[in-house]
Amino acid sequence: MAIRRILIANRGEIAVRIIRTAHRLGIETVLAVSEADRDSLGAKQATRAVCIGPGRPTDSYLRVETIVQAALGTGCDAIHPGYGFLSERAALAQLCEDEGVIFIGPTAAQIDAVGDKLKARFHAEAANVPVVPGGPVDNLAEAQALAERIGAPLLVKAVGGGGGRGMKLVENLDDLAATLDMASAEAGAAFGDARVYLERYVSQGRHVEVQLLGDGAGKVIHLGERDCSVQRRYQKLIEETPAPALPDHARAAMHEAAVRFAQSLDYRGAGTVEFLYDVAREEFYFLEMNARIQVEHPVTEMVTGIDLIEQQIRIAQGDGLTLSQDDIRIDGAAVECRINAEDPKHDFRPSPGRVSKVLWPSGEGIRVDTHIVDGASIPPFYDSMVAKIIAHGPDRDTAMARLWKALNDTRIEGIATNVDFQAELLDDPDFVAGGVDTGWLGRRLAKVEI
Amino acid sequence: MSLTAKDVEEIMKLLESSSFDRLNLEVDGMKIELERSGAPARPRAAPATPDAPAAPAAPPVKAAAVLREEGLVEINAPLLGIFYRAPKPGEPPFVDVGSRVDTETVIGIVEVMKLMNSVAAGVTGEIVDIVGANGELVEHGEVLMLVRPEA
Question: Which of A293, A298, A369, A416 could link A343 by a cystine bridge, Cβ 3.0 to 4.6 Å?
Fold first, then answer.
């Protein structure tokens, strides 16, 4: 069934991005807005905007029933969830299925299958996709046998821990017994749960992810990979494709593994499989699958010429996947910088407010995805990302040079942003060389502070 | 002094050429409120079938400038949903123009996915206008009724 009117359950730049493709396809849009977003660019561009609640996301953008009611009440036949908010809540996909509204994304069951880390790891192992070697251990004999298979260095992790807490590094397997005792005792005291598990320690890891499209009936293709290793506190800042300085065998193996994983789920729509790439061992491990469009999707669009939002809509309305793997050609390289309303000079504290004046860059190979225009307000309730500046070129050096110039041409007045900080990173010899690991930015910032 | 339709037209033109989004004017007990499009405006419900086009964008200045008696209080929709004026189809409405309400009086229902939320007047006085249409989608904050409060 051809989709004629889409309710967009999101805000900011991705709302504007979805509106652009929908209108190009002759599809009307209804944007669900909070009180804080009534005057946003998306609200002006959409065919219609409806206010769904107060500014705080829990009172508006995160209300499943309100979103579906808004779609039904405005005659929408589909809902696009964007990223974040309700995009990976099986409850929204399920309610859409129950109410006969097309959910532009995977099925509720697929969201559920990849949403839980343990379930996802189980599915990955079943699809013969490598996961970080490791597992639970009950006693020293078990631990020693497993440690031999994993190899050193390895981590002893508390089952009850998480977020970096309850971890101990074993650099030499001779120390395993002592560390295991200590870790177990500490875990019992700290988390009330003495159980521990072992996991291979990746001292130098890169975040490499593979973009996928699936028709929901077992056909899955990939659109290359993205390297998103430049991160601060697990927040991606720069993304690029192709991943630089990656052995061809590893790249191809990651593409194949990602496709295999999604095929095993009969995955429907756009999705991304994230891998941790172990630089020293030239191996990769499944991290998770994101069952939605991603923030960094434009770099893939720039090198493939394929509109991923359009593909999402076409698959959702039952056209199937008209592209085949042979249709996907990677042309050159693309790099994206996320522009955030935050102040790098003051520990990256958020800087909401009103943008008095803004000048976005343009030029060959430059694309800007944003909802910020002169006078736009940045409410304090939401993510601090205000724009993505993307540069494409025939090769990585050209793309980087274009992006650097674009950042220097950007003027944003009224709020603090990380534009200058991003330009510095692009200039850093390590980044220019290509292939930095996920710890690179943290180490760089720690050095600057000293 | 009183405002004629021509005066209102003049004022609308002034707002249109200004950099302001909203104008509130009170003259001799008459109150005029103008809003530019983009400012929180009273929306029109789109028809509930995909066959009809979505509601068109609002004109630059709301053509139907609300000429409103001074001191009226709005009852706003507390959430987005379908507005019903009666407890069940075919039953008399909770309130009508002329009804006297107090803060606790239920004036209607907003349905969100089969969950009925009753709407209290929140003010003591007399209903003078019913703005929300029965069975139509109302947005969060949309005006449902106007009340002349008791002094």
Answer: A416
